[in-house]
Amino acid sequence: MSRTILAILLLVLGLGLAGPGKIGPALAAGSDGDVTSAAQSDRITEPDSWRAIRQGEAGYIGGQPAARGVLIQSEGEIWRNVRNGKLAVWAGWLLAGVTLAIAAFYVIRGKIMMEGGPSGQTILRFNKMERVGHWLTAGSFLVLALTGLNLLFGRWIIEPWLGKSLFSWISWAGKWLHNIAGFVFIAGLVMIFFLWARDNLWDRYDWGWIKGGGGLLKKGVHPPAAKFNFGQKTQFWMVILVGALVSSTGLNLLFPFTMGDIHAMQVMHLIHTALAVVMVLFILGHIYIGTIGMEGASTAVTTGYVDREWAREHHAAWVEDVEKREPKAAE
Ligand code: HEM
Fold first, then answer.
1. Which has more pLDDT, 168 or 57?
2. Out of 22-31, 94-103, 248-257, least confident range
3. 225 lines ligand 1 (CB under 6 A)
4. Whose CA is nearest to atom 2 of ligand 1?
5. Residue 70 bridge partners (DSSP)
6. Of 146, 207, 213, 305, which residue is 20 to 30 A from 183 by alpha carbon distance?
7. Where in the chain is the domain with CATH 1.20.950.20?
């Protein structure tokens, strides 16, 4: 008696766990995963079954979402061709092109120097919280960019150098790092949004800054700017908006089938990769200006202080404002 009750219970539980999966005409599978032709039960001929499979109809796999019953999903072939073809080729050319353009800018314009020379006096540009926000976003992005580009290009560029086994080990570790760094990046993104969004709204200095080419093209031109100039605002909103899209599509890939079926995931994957490359292109320029491209900028995100001459040349309105509000901020 108790055995019968147990058997009924197991049957009911089993049905519940299997969920309302669709039993398509193509295939049926036992709960142990063996896939058998539905023709046996539905009197559908074998050619009918295989035609249905080729057209992407979903079969049934015990305990799995219906979408996983698709044996042949033809869009997968299109996805693979776009990913390994147009997307990878365009991404490669753009990355090489932007790197060369930055190098040419460096050769032609040279390092942007403090024209009045360093004053020796500093002013606090970013407090600790702002620097933590910057490096959470920047550090994780660098890990994401390197490990992501390895996924996109590594097989062609790195594998021939390192050999299959070392490359596969590095890529496996890189994929784990990529998954973890994604969460750190999201945390950094939220942090810099709350810290800096207000300072990145359009203000009365922006139009003048655009007309003056941001002072980037000609020596001696310094259009005034508040805490952030129009170029930085563009980069900030790009990081926030494109970063949010790259993050949400990344989460969709990290938790498969939670936000869509396999086709939606293929589309998300292409969007994720294309937008991530767009971000890398922007950030190449940002890293250039933050390091070798401009004298006096990098300490803003390391010690937090910048030379007062640098601040006056690039953010005159901000310096005035800080000095008015907190005379002690200038040391
Ligand atoms: C080696 C890498 C990096 C360096 C050396 C660097 C350097 C800098 C510097 C010097 C500033 C301050 C500019 C100023 O005081 O006006 C800054 C600001 C900023 N950084 Fe970075 N950065 C790096 C990577 C990144 C990455 C990867 C991101 C985002 C994914 C990022 C996002 C930002 C944002 C949003 C700001 C504020 C707005 C702006 O100045 O453009 N940074 N960074």
1. 168
2. 22-31
3. no
4. 287
5. 58
6. 305
7. 75-126+197-329
Superfamily for the 75-126+197-329 domain: Transmembrane di-heme cytochromes, Chain C (1.20.950.20)
Cα(266)–Cα(227) distance, rounded to whole angstroms?
41
The burial of 181, by beta-carbon neighbours within 10 Å (0-12 exposed, 13-18 middle, 19 or more buried), is given as buried
272 lines ligand 1 (CB under 6 A): no
pLDDT tens digits along 131-189: 999 999 999 999 999 999 999 999 999 999 999 999 999 999 999 999 999 999 999 99
pLDDT of 329 reads 52
Q: 310: Cβ below 6 Å to ligand 1? A: no
Per-residue burial over 246-257, b = 16 or more CB atoms within 10 Å of its CB, e = otherwise = bbebbbbeeeee
Of the listed ranges 65-79, 201-215, 248-262, the least confidently predicted one is 65-79
Cα 181 to middle of ligand 1, angstroms = 18
Q: Is the CB of 113 under 6 A from ligand 1?
A: no
Which one is predicted more confidently, 15 or 87? 87
Residue type, 143: V
Atom nearest to 240 CA in ligand 1? 35
Q: In a mutational test of the pocket of ligand 1, which residue from 127, 240, 301, 306 has the highest number of ligand atoms less than 8 Å from its CB?
A: 301
Q: What is the pLDDT of residues 196-205, one digit of tens each?
A: 999 999 999 9
CA of 306 to the centre of ligand 1 (A): 14
Alpha carbons 219 and 295: distance in angstroms, whole number: 13
Query: Average pLDDT in the 67-88 region?
Result: 90
Q: Which of 134, 146, 233 to mutate to test the pocket of ligand 1 (most atoms within 8 A of CB)?
A: 134
Both tokens assigned to 261: 């079926």
- H-helix segments, the chain: 2-18, 39-42, 46-54, 75-82, 88-109, 128-157, 159-162, 164-196, 206-211, 230-254, 262-290, 308-314, 316-325
